[in-house]
Structures are given as structure tokens and as C-alpha cells.
């Protein structure tokens, strides 16, 4: 066999040709929808357009999906399926995220699907005729999940045993798809790593985008710019996103965990999320962290006592209060809120590191098995067991039982459980 042999799978979507090395079978950039225009809702691919699909080459700019399977997987194997939604602040990313490569999953008998979706204004600008809670980027993923439901059996997967996995913006999308008004039974459980919701809605920020564009924010206007002056649209978006400072410029807002469907959810965060953000590093290095926390805490979402939050942040790390505020405001507060409000079973896990910060994205390759060894075995087992349907081996997150959290050290093999690790975040950011 050559290094990469072509293999064709016959599915309801058509005959799809991918590449195998004899162990892993990959299908790159498979189309799952038709997009009539950059700011229009995607649609299912009509049956008459289904034909031969060449999935041997990755096209990162396409709104498409990729599938990675064991080379011998076939119909009726009923392998568990991971559908992964990438992060990237709702601004960038691709369905070819190498940090979450599916090869280790395939070796463990798990199929991986990477979903691409529209980002920036094409995916998350809202117009006057959009339904409440509707975002084109999230609707793209919903169509992708429908494609998986119709086709994954042809690749050896079990459509009744799908775990939706997302990181950062992808975790936000996963939680939005798990809301009762969106949930259609296309997945059985959710793993949401470091979700991040913007603090203000697009409607409240629409005026600043209008100023940056110098044109009305309508579907027709943005479509003309995208087709005729894409560079002008790109520069205008860059100005718009700069105005939003440390917050996400786009994305779904008004998250309410009580609206989630009653399904198992595993929520994770890293303890130090955005310690490596340059602005936070500069502020803290100059000794201005406490001052900036006092000035910005309210604007960044702190509702409780700023003085108490600052005291606890400095107790954890006296030198980095601003770095902690950035990460808590962007990610950990949403983990706390989802854990507090979700109606179904929730388990919480937090990643720490030995003698250094554990930062945003650090856990992705560890969970996906791209770093092997005894020190990462517990982290990999957490992922594989959850995907296979095994209930996590520690207490679920409930106020009445101590709000338990599994602590996983990314630098050592240490695993422990602690109670209420997000207390300072919950008390600072969540309403009474």
C-alpha cells in the first residue's frame, strides 16, 4: 500500500473519497450545506446535487466538515462519534484544527468530525428580520449536525452516540445548540471547554459598527461590501472589534443556563485562562494590576464586591491580578454560570499546571491524545470515557453537595477533587 491510498465511502450525501495510510482514514472539507450569499442562511444540499465528492484535499476557507475514522470502520460498527467545533473568538479558525486532530481518537475506536462555520460578520452580525437567538454561524453547525445524523453510519459511526465538543467560541456554540429552543436530539452529551460569551449584544454594538463602516448595517449593504469591496469590510471590522477592547466583539449573548436541555454536560476551564494576553502581562509587570482591576472590574462584568474579588485574586497570585480578571471575565464566569443553572447533570473539571500558569487552549491536545505519556493519561482517559458514555468518576456539580470539581494537572500526573473552585468567580460575576 502507498502512503496514502484513496478510499470511497457511499453515503446518503453521495460517494465521498478520502485518503488512508492503512491505519487512519481522512475525509477533508466535505460540503454539508449550500450558502446562497455571505449573509444568508445556509440550506441543505438538494438531493439532486449529491454526487461524487473529492475529500482528499483540505480547503480551510470552506464552510465544510472533515471526518477521521479508523481505516477499517464500516457500516453497523456503531463507533462513538465526537463532533468538534473550533474556537477563535468567533473571528477565525477552521475545520482542520490540528490541536484537535482525530487520529488518536481513531486509534481508540472513536470517529471525529470537525465542523467549520462562518465567523465574523458573515456568521454573527444580526439583522432586523433575524429570529431571536438566531446566528448564521450557529445555524451552520446545526446543519452540520443534521448531516452527521444522516451520514455517519456510512462511516461506521453511531448517530445515537454523538458527543458535541467545543472549545472557547466553539464551546459557546455547543452550549447554544444545547438550549431547548435549538436542541433537536442530534447529540447525546456536551463537553464545553472554556466557553466565552460577549458581555453586550450585537444590537447594542451596532452603532459602533455603523460608524466603522460608514454605511448602514443591513444584509444588502454588507453583501455588496463583501462582494465588491471585501478589503474595506475587513478594515471596518478590525476597527469595530478594536472598540470592544478585551471582550469578544461578536457572538451570542443573554446566556441563561436554565434554558439548556436536560443532557449530561462536562464543563472545563483552565485556572489561568488568559495570563498570556500581552495587555494583561504589561499591566501586571508594571505593578498597575490592582489599579486596573479597580477601574475595569465593573465594565468587565463584576457585580459583587470589587475589593473582595481583588483580594482573592491577589491571594492566588499577587503579581497577576489583571491577568486573572481577563480570564475570569472571558471564560471562567461562564463556566460557573452554566454549572449553576443547567437543569441536567453537570460535571466540572479544571486544568492547572505545576509551577506555571495553565492557560487557554492548553488542554486541547491533551484531551485529544496528541501528547502521550503517563503524565497525560488521566486527562486523555477523562475525554475517552466521557465520549464512550461513562459517567465521570467524581461528584456532579450541585450546590447541595459542595460544587465538586476534578483538578487535572497538565504538567504532572496529579489528579484530585476540590469543592467550589469557582466560588470567587461565582460571587463576583453572577447575580445574587
Low-confidence stretches: none
By secondary-structure content and strand pairing, the structural class works out as alpha/beta
* Major sheet description: 13 strands, mixed
Number of helices: 14
* N- to C-terminal distance: 64 Å
Sheet-strand content, in percent, reads 15-25%
Radius of gyration, in Å, reads: 22 Å
Structural shape: globular
Oligomer: single chain
- What letter string, H or E per element, gives the SSE order? EEEEEEHEHHEHEHHHEHHHHEHHEEH
Give the helix proportion (percent range).
Answer: 25-40%
Average pLDDT figure: 95
What is the total tally of β strands? 13
Keywords: Hydrolase
Domain Carboxylesterase type B: 65-195
EC number: 3.1.1.-
Enzyme class: hydrolase
Amino acid at each position: 500500500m502507498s502512503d496514502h491510498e484513496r478510499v470511497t465511502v457511499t453515503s446518503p450525501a453521495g460517494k465521498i473519497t478520502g485518503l488512508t495510510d492503512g491505519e487512519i482514514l481522512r475525509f477533508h472539507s466535505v460540503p454539508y450545506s449550500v450558502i446562497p450569499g455571505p449573509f444568508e442562511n445556509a440550506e441543505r444540499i438538494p438531493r439532486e446535487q449529491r454526487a461524487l465528492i473529492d475529500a482528499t484535499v483540505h480547503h480551510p476557507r470552506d464552510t465544510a466538515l472533515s471526518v477521521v475514522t479508523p481505516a477499517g470502520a464500516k457500516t453497523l460498527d456503531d463507533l462513538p462519534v465526537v463532533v468538534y467545533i473550533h474556537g477563535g473568538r468567533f473571528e477565525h479558525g477552521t475545520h482542520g484544527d490540528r490541536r484537535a486532530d482525530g487520529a488518536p481518537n481513531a486509534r481508540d475506536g472513536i470517529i471525529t468530525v470537525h465542523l467549520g462555520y462562518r465567523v465574523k460578520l458573515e456568521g454573527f452580525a444580526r439583522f432586523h428580520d433575524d429570529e431571536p437567538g438566531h446566528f448564521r454561524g450557529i445555524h451552520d453547525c446545526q446543519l452540520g449536525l443534521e448531516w452527521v445524523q444522516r451520514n455517519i453510519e456510512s462511516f461506521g459511526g453511531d448517530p445515537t452516540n454523538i458527543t458535541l465538543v467545543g472549545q472557547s467560541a466553539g464551546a459557546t456554540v455547543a452550549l447554544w445548540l444545547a438550549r431547548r429552543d435549538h436542541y433537536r436530539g442530534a447529540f447525546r452529551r456536551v463537553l464545553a471547554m472554556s466557553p466565552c460569551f460577549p458581555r453586550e449584544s450585537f444590537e447594542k454594538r451596532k452603532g459602533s459598527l455603523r460608524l466603522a463602516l460608514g454605511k448602514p448595517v443591513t444584509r444588502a449593504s454588507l453583501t455588496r461590501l463583501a462582494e465588491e469591496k471585501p478589503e474595506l469590510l475587513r478594515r471596518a471590522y478590525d476597527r469595530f472589534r478594536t472598540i470592544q477592547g478585551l471582550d469578544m466583539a461578536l457572538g451570542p449573548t443573554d446566556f441563561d443556563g436554565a434554558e439548556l436541555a436536560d443532557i449530561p454536560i462536562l464543563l472545563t476551564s483552565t485556572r489561568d485562562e488568559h495570563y498570556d494576553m500581552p495587555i494583561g502581562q504589561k499591566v501586571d509587570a508594571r505593578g498597575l494590576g490592582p489599579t486596573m482591576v479597580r477601574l475595569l472590574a465593573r465594565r468587565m462584568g463584576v457585580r459583587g464586591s470589587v475589593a473582595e474579588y481583588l483580594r482573592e485574586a491577589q491571594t492566588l497570585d499577587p503579581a497577576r491580578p489583571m491577568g486573572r480578571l481577563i480570564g475570569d471575565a472571558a471564560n471562567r464566569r461562564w463556566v460557573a454560570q452554566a454549572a449553576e443553572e443547567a437543569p441536567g447533570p453537570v460535571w466540572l473539571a479544571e486544568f492547572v499546571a505545576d509551577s506555571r500558569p495553565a492557560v487557554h487552549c492548553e488542554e486541547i491536545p491533551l484531551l485529544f491524545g496528541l501528547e502521550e505519556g503517563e503524565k497525560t493519561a488521566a486527562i486523555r482517559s477523562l475525554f475517552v470515557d466521557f465520549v464512550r458514555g461513562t459517567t465521570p468518576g467524581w461528584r456532579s456539580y450541585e450546590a447541595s453537595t459542595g460544587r465538586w470539581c476534578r483538578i487535572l494537572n497538565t504538567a504532572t500526573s496529579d489528579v484530585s477533587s476540590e469543592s467550589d473552585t469557582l466560588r470567587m468567580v461565582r460571587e463576583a460575576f453572577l447575580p445574587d
